Amino acid sequence: MIKLVATDLKMQFEHRTLFEAKHLHFCQGDVVHLRGDNGSGKSTLMKILAGIQTPTQGKIEAQGFQPGPWWRSDSLLGKALYLHQHPYLYDGSVEYNMTYALPAPLREQPDIKQRISESILHAELGHLLQQNATLLSGGERQRLAIARAYIMQPKLLMLDEPTSNMDKDSQQLVLNMIAKLKHQGTGLLISSHQSCELTQLCHQEWKIAQQQITTSANVTSSYQPLSTIASSQSEQTKQEQQYVSAN
Ligand SMILES: Nc1ncnc2c1ncn2[C@@H]1O[C@H](COP(=O)(O)OP(=O)(O)OP(=O)(O)O)[C@@H](O)[C@H]1O
Ligand SMILES: [Mg+2]
C-alpha cells in the first residue's frame, strides 16, 4: 500500500505554533477534505507532506513506493504531487506545458498521447493550446495544472484550493477530472475552507483548528461524477477533436 505516514508532527514559525499532529496517514484510495480557516496552515501541511518544506519536528515516512535513484532515496520529493494554490507554469504555450514540459520518463510512456488528449478534452483547453500559459486567467491556470496532474497520474495528489478563482463551468470541469482520478484510485487530499461539491467527493476530513490537526471519517456522498464526464466529452470543441486526431 502506497502511503505517507506522519508522526509527532509540529510546525512552528519562530515562536508561533501553527499546528501539531500525533499521527496522520494519507494512502492511495483516500479522499480527504483538509479544512481550516485562512492562515490555519493547510498549504503549509501539504508542502510538508510533499517534501517541499521541513517541519519543525516530526517524522514523515513514504511507504510502498518504487525505490528512487540513490541520491533521492530518502527524499519525500516527488512521492505526493502538490498542486499549488497559484500554480507555477512554464513560459511557453499551453500545449508545451502539457507535453514537452512533462518529466522525461513520463513522456516515454506508451499511453502518454492518449492521456494528453483526454486531459485536453476534460479540461476544455483545446482552444487555448497555442496561447502562452503565463497569460492564462487564474481559473484557466488551475485547469491546466490539474490537466497536467491528470496526465502524470500520481499515486497521491494534494490539491490546494483547486476551485478558487473558478466560475461554475470550470468548477464542474475540475470536479469531473478529480472524480475521475478518485475513480482511478489516486489518493486525494483536497484543501478547501468551505464545504462544496468538490468536498462531497471526500470520505475523510482533516481539520486544523486551535493548532491541532484532527482526523475523522466523513459521510460518503451520493455524487455520481462519471456520467457528467461522458456528457462533457460529447461536447468537445473542434480544436480538441483536431488535436486528438492529429496526435
Ligand atoms: N515561511 C513562513 N514564515 C513565517 N510565517 C509563515 C511562513 N509561511 C507561512 N506562514 C504563516 O503561516 C500561516 C499559515 O499559512 P498557510 O498558507 O499554510 O495557511 P492556509 O491555511 O493555507 O491559509 P489560506 O486558507 O489562506 O490558504 C499564515 O499565517 C502564514 O502567514
Ligand atoms: Mg492555503
TrEMBL record:
InterPro entries: AAA+_ATPase, ABC_transporter-like_ATP-bd, ABC_transporter-like_CS, Metal_Ion_Import_ABC, P-loop_NTPase. GO terms for molecular function: ATP binding; ATP hydrolysis activity. The keyword rRNA-binding does not apply. It holds the Pfam family ABC_tran. SUPFAM superfamilies: P-loop containing nucleoside triphosphate hydrolases. Residues 4-235 form the ABC transporter domain. Coiled coil: none annotated. PROSITE patterns: ABC_TRANSPORTER_1 (PS00211), ABC_TRANSPORTER_2 (PS50893). Signal peptide: none annotated. Keywords: ATP-binding, Nucleotide-binding, Transport. It comes from the Bacteria. Belongs to the ABC transporter superfamily. This is ABC transporter. It comes from Shewanella gelidii.
